Amino acid sequence: MNIATINGARPHLHVMGRPGRQESSHESDPVKDDHAQRMLESLDNPIWFALITEHRLLARSHGLARRYPPDVSPLAALLHPTNDAFADLQRLVSPGEQVALFTASPLDVPGNWQVDRSRWIDQMICEASLPQPPVVPLPLGTTDVPEMLELTAATEPGPFLPQTIQMGSYFGIRANDGRLVAMAGERLRSTAFAEISAVCTHPEFRGRGYARDLTTFLAAQILAAGKAPFLHVKSENGAKVVYQKIGFRLRAEIRLTVISQAILRRKTRAR
């Protein structure tokens, strides 16, 4: 796994429009185009926009910082990555606790924080209408959380905690013996977008298209609700090809940064 350095800038991609389609000038509406561009750019700071819109009731807030409750998600965000904003975030994070941020560029993290992990990930978005998959997944609820925790622990699709289910709708596929063998759901949700996350399949049941069917089902549900589905994936993850076949395209590279408060050690005098 190649992890870029904190200060290693990477190009930020914005791919507007659909391939093969050219808009004539008389069809363009500058006001609508500007609004659409601003909405799309909200995905540069997707955690922040989720926490001030659809997930505002979940938000823990202080000044220029927002975060989810620790048993819901480790995700946090800053309005702008200033020293004041990091100071506000410090009021929301316990000593030794890790939080993760998504940003459009590498963060200049103040010295009282330590960077535990930093890398680029791909943000993909789907704007095309999708057919429903042949398999209709089952809705998952709070009573299914123990099985969901067991499945995500075995497959590691990303953080899934006891209260993560509060973030959106989750669906799963069960084997003939009733075991939950695949799942996916919604994580970040804002006014115009909903993120698909926790896509995973038990190792014994891979190769059957369950991840594709779950992603297609969720994307179609999100589109039908008038929002655009998006997701985050490591560039080296083979699932990226599956997402592209479904209809997702690369929108941008997003910087994932995991930080925690630096532990200051007192100097002891030699006797």
Explain what the structure shows.
There is one protein chain. The chain has two domains: 41-121 and 255-261, Aminopeptidase, CATH 3.40.630.30; 126-252, Gcn5-related N-acetyltransferase (GNAT) (Aminopeptidase, 3-Layer(aba) Sandwich). With 271 residues, the protein is an alpha+beta fold. A hairpin with a 2-residue loop joins β1 (60-62) and β2. The chain has six helices and eleven strands. It has helices spanning 30-41, 46-51, 83-90, 145-155, 210-224, 239-246, and strands at 60-62, 65-67, 76-78, 98-103, 113-126, 138-140, 170-174, 180-189, 193-201, 228-233, 248-261. The radius of gyration is 20 Å and the shape is globular. Helix content is 22%, strand content 28%. The chain has an eight-stranded mixed beta sheet with strand order 4-11-5-10-9-8-7-6, with helices on both faces. It has a three-stranded antiparallel beta sheet with strand order 1-2-3. The N and C termini lie far apart (46 Å). The longest helix is centred in the last third of the chain and has 15 residues, at 210-224.
Helix fraction by DSSP (H/I, runs of at least 4): 10-25%
Q: What is the radius of gyration computed over CA atoms, rounded to a whole number of angstroms?
A: 20 Å
CATH class of the largest domain equals: Alpha Beta
Shape: globular
Write the CATH homologous superfamily of the largest domain. Gcn5-related N-acetyltransferase (GNAT)
At CATH's second level, what is the architecture of the largest domain? 3-Layer(aba) Sandwich
Mean pLDDT: 88
Query: What is the element string, with H for helices and E for strands?
Result: HHEEEHEEEHEEEHEHE
* Number of individual domains: 2
How far is the first residue's CA from the last residue's CA?
Answer: 46 Å
Q: Could you please say which CATH topology of the largest domain applies here? A: Aminopeptidase
Question: Which strand order spans the largest sheet, edge to edge or round the barrel?
Answer: 4-11-5-10-9-8-7-6
